[in-house]
Amino acid sequence: MDSNSLYYSLELVAGSGQTLNVEQRAALQTSLVILKKNYKFSRVLFWGKILGLNEDYFIAQGRGEDEMQDKKYLYSFNCMDWFLLPSTTDSMIQEVSAAAKGRFIGDPSHVYGQGESDEEKLESKVKEESRLAVTVHQIDEEVSVVPRGAFIKSPHGLVQINRSFGGLSDSEAGKLDNYLHFSEPKNLKKKSILEMADLNPAIDFLDVLSDDIPKGSWSLQCECAGRVCVLRSLFWLGLTSYHVPMTPQHGYIYIGDGTKNLDLPFML
Length: 268
What we know:
Blueprint: H1 6-12, H2 22-39, E1 43-50, E2 57-63, E3 71-76, E4 83-84, H3 90-99, E5 111-112, H4 118-124, E6 126-127, H5 128-143, E7 145-147, E8 151-153, E9 159-161, H6 170-173, E10 179-181, H7 193-197, E11 218-223, E12 228-233, E13 239-243, E14 250-256, H8 264-267
Parallel strand pairs: 1-14
Antiparallel strand pairs: 1-2, 2-3, 3-4, 5-6, 7-10, 8-9, 11-12, 12-13, 13-14
């Protein structure tokens, strides 16, 4: 959620229990402005919080000119002092998947290992900071959500905020196929020429949530007397996306333990 509308946005998702205390909100309001200036980001979003056994990680996301490609993530323990997360690589993802299990500790220097002995653990050298970077990356790749039309893609491939987006209508906002994954499309590339003919390449360049497998991995509800539409991921429990129909207001937040609900296909 955009740091410029943080207080307002947090109120919209409060029904999901996704909230912060007064001190944390005040600290974020100040520190995210400084973060934007220091790193020269186009804008800064409060991404969410990953719960640890000893400490929680607060996550911020900075964006550059290209809203989808130019992303950096930072973490903090006190919502004031921020540390840059390393960029993820395929090899890092494989190492983390093999070695890091269980709950986050809340210590970025904590080392995970596949073996039980100290020697084997030191050999793996998978630090919790790397695990945090991979987890945030995976959540963003799999369940970051935007309403259709909120972003526009230029003929040169640049993805930016669509300044003319006035929001989905009340009827559109209640349909899953009007919400898109804000990550590199996978299903879109599999569509036929006939299916692609009905799409507007300027705004239909992302995968729609209704194509997700298994069906039923999203919960879409209108709350606050229909004032806000809220999407919840059942794969990454704790991911909540919101959109206020007839306005450009939208965003998402993740507050959870950073583990994926792999049992979901058997639960539906």
